Amino acid sequence: MTRSICTYAPLNGRAPRLTPRQVREVRVRFHRRDSFSPKTSVIVARYSQWRSKTREDEVITTLICLTIQTMQVVSNARRISRVLKAPVFLHLERFLISDIEKLEDCYGSFQWQKQRSFSIQTSTFSGTIHGVRLPVATDVQHLGRHPICSVMARASFASEAGTTDGGPSETVKEIYDKMLKSVEAETMPPNAWMWSLIENCANREDIKLLFQMLENLRRFRLSNLRIHANFNCNLCLRVAEACARVGSLDFGKKTLWTHNVYGLTPSIGSAHYLLLYAKEHNNAKLMMDIMKNLKRNSLPLQPGTADIVFSICYNTNNWELISKYSKKFIKAGVKLRRTTFDTWMEFAAKRGDAESIWKIEELRSNLMKQHTVVSGFSCAKGFLLEHKPECAAAIIHTLSQNFPDKKKPDVANELEKLVSKWPLEVIKHQKKEERKALASSLRSDISIMVNGLLKMGLEVGINLEDLNKKEAIPC
After folding, report:
1. What's the CA gap between 63 and 244, in Å, rounded?
2. In the list 90, 146, 239, 357, which could disulfide-bond 382, CB 3.0-4.6 Å?
3. What DSSP line would sit under 185-219, residue for residue?
4. Which GO cellular component term is one of those annotated (predicted)?
5. How far is CA 460 from CA 246, 419, 421, 449, 463, in A?
6. What is the tens place of the pLDDT at every residue in 388-425?
7. In terms of Cα–Cα distance, which of 278, 406, 426 is closest to 346?
8. What is the residue extent of each domain of the chain?
9. What is the distance between the alpha carbons of residues 297 and 275, in angstroms, rounded to a whole number?
10. How far apart are CA 168 and CA 201, in angstroms?
């Protein structure tokens, strides 16, 4: 009777004496998934028993032993079939049924103390046909028929059940299956199917199938069609848009990788879709992660990138972050847009930082001569912070004279905001001991500015009595 390799004598807490040669043999053969000699198999089992400190390690040890046992039987059957020149059929279920029952009993009585994934993932069992990667959902149905595979699959899915979103949508699954059958038949699917697959993605599971199909198509193009080039950047744009629409940002970041297995050609446009998602959700951390990916993959910064980044910094009230990225954009030679300068200057005026206002204005004047409504009023606010109300009135009057009639209402709205809202925002950003003096100076300077505008003939619908009340600008 053959002795089972899973039976071994207790070691009383002492490490087995292994020679360096035996250790190397165990490591090399196990990583290469090669067959073990009986002597080496016993060494693996004894060494695993010595290292096991919890019930979890005992289960892993049993799985390793069963796997080694199965590999030995299959290897011996192949040798016999070559000698006899006849196929040998094995019933592994009967061979392993007793050990499997013990293993399942061990699983039934064991409760995980730490929520971590089992070391054997179901992705290990994903099938491959003609170089095509099959989805996990398809393979698990076949894995469940084999005892040892069912245990492994159940262990993996038990820890990952909380991360699934309920499976892919029917439309996406149907399109995916059609494309998969086409690839298995060694025929390139129509482009319309890929566009339809991207447009119909509605959840994270749909995005997973989309990236699996991209990987399959790239492998098919490389092995069957001998096409080494990636897909065009337009496809990458649509994939990034779908990831942002669904909210699968971990997959979306993969569209920025220069070296990827999906055949995607990253571009700054793909990053803009992800940055717009970060802007919509006021997520500065996500924005910083995307910017790191752009630098890591050497994607060039664009004026549109700065526009979105500055907006996120403004909405999250993060002056340090906008100062950091402004230096990077200027160093990269990016020509900032008017809207970008408007956001930057308005943020500086909101904080009451006159010095930053004039530095930004110098950069803006080097690129464009004409003011916008926002940049002009930001300069007026800078004059008020420096106690120069006459200069503030002069620049507002100039803006009103130079802008066309359709822009006059915008000037009136900005003037009203300057009088009613801006002083409150500035005082909030100051230290408590400086608020009283600043509130008093702003109250008097704004009154002088408004009187100066009235003398210049500009119609100003502002009641100065409301401004002079203490409630208007609290100390």
Report:
1. 41
2. 357
3. TT-PPPHHHHHHHHHT--SHHHHHHHHHHHHHHHH
4. mitochondrion
5. 48, 11, 16, 11, 9
6. 999 999 999 999 999 888 888 899 999 999 988 999 99
7. 426
8. 20-162, 337-475
9. 16
10. 9
